[in-house]
Amino acid sequence: MVLTSNSSAKPAKHFKRKPSGGNDEASTSGDAWKPGLGSRMAAVKILSAVLEKKTSLDGMMDAENGNPTYRALNVADRALVRAIVNTALRHLPRIDAALGMLLDGPLPQGARSLHHVLVVGATQMLYLDVPDHSAVDLAVEQAHRDPRNRRFVKLVNAVLRRLGREKDDVLQAVSAIPVLPEWFYKRLSKVYGADAAERMAQAQLIPSVIDITVKSNPEQWASKLGGTVMPNGSVRLGSFEGSVSGLEGFDDGEWWVQDFSASIPVRLMGDLTGKRVVDACAAPGGKTAQLILSGAKVTALDQSGNRLKRLRENLRRLKLEAETIESNMLKFQPEELFDAVLLDAPCSSTGTLRKHPDVCWTKDERDIAKLAGLQEQMLRHASTFVKSGGLVVFSNCSLDPSEGEEMVAKVLASSPDLERIPVSAQDFPGMEHAVNADGDLRTTPDMFGGVDGFYAAVLRKR
Known about the structure:
Blueprint lengths: L36 H17 L3 H4 L7 H4 L3 H28 L9 H16 L4 H14 L7 H13 L1 H8 L7 H11 L1 H10 L7 E4 L3 H8 L2 E2 L5 E2 L18 E3 L6 H4 L8 E4 L6 H8 L3 E6 L2 H14 L4 E4 L11 E7 L14 H4 L2 H18 L3 E11 L8 H9 L4 E3 L20 E3 L10 E8 L1
Parallel strand pairs: 5-6, 5-8, 6-7, 8-9
Antiparallel strand pairs: 1-3, 1-4, 2-3, 9-12, 10-12, 11-12
Helix pairs in contact: 1-4, 1-5, 4-5, 4-8, 5-6, 5-7, 6-7, 9-10, 16-17
């Protein structure tokens, strides 16, 4: 569980113990292998891959194809690794500042591995309910076992022990430092203003909630599952034991997991009864399912065979049907024009930091510019899928206007056959502040008790 320095929440109790069992108890090179060491080693490896190689966190924590050190751990130890790494990424600027206060000078050039060992230790001590002595002991042991870091064992021990003694003062000293990378925080401040940027930064420290989209009767399902109906008709789940798939209605296909914001683009399209709609980047299928329930005859398009397979499996569980086509949408040429197209385009995903805190550490401004160019190309091509009078809904989960408002404005300015259809705030009671001056939809992570940042615009083919 992530805690801010002034939070009154209680950390998860299962992190109070040292993880044990599984392969974390193994031995190596004949030396005794301390309980919990494997978890910390996995955390350092994964953190290093994110920060140094810009590797996706989801891929490394995949149960089947993820990092080998991570996959070798048991379920409880994997949970601890996820907690350490996610928390470290959410608080990294403050953790780095805290370590800087305790070091006499910068770490030696090339000592990135040592830096990650210190970050993992400090994360546990500052923001997780792990005993200080355990975090220090395992960090020292890890440094001792790594030939690159062995000569810094005394430094690791001294810095982390001092951190334990001065923890409260250190937390206070770093509490005003933004918890996002400098480049990204400056970009948010420029676009949304300093106050809004700070609210968004703080929102990504709050553990993610789970929203679901139901086939019908959200009030009834909210009552059954102990949830709350949101302004857009989504149901936000409360606390529950076990996995989502064990909840009532999952096996029967009555609902699916979908963030509040991600469910909005389809809702902007209105009544689709009898209309032919193409979902241009369809997997994993949440929006496809919404389109079907809206009465549309849906063609689901995706260039990834594996992702399309997952979409088909999801639709089978939901007892819904759609035509599925494996194709790069930029090469897709429909034999017959559609009534509408939904393009939920690939993007920087900066609106999903609450779930994916690695995003702003693995992406940069060059990635945003490159993706904005791709989105423009995709939107222009998607508009050729629809007949005159047809709708084109563009959306993505980026907070950056260059991937949203600015890109759409550029396309409209050079496409006389397209026009914007402004969304009426009155049609979305309780969500009025998510509709911008142009009539596009824009959510940010600090809205509605915590949601994905999302952008959506409705266009029409003349």
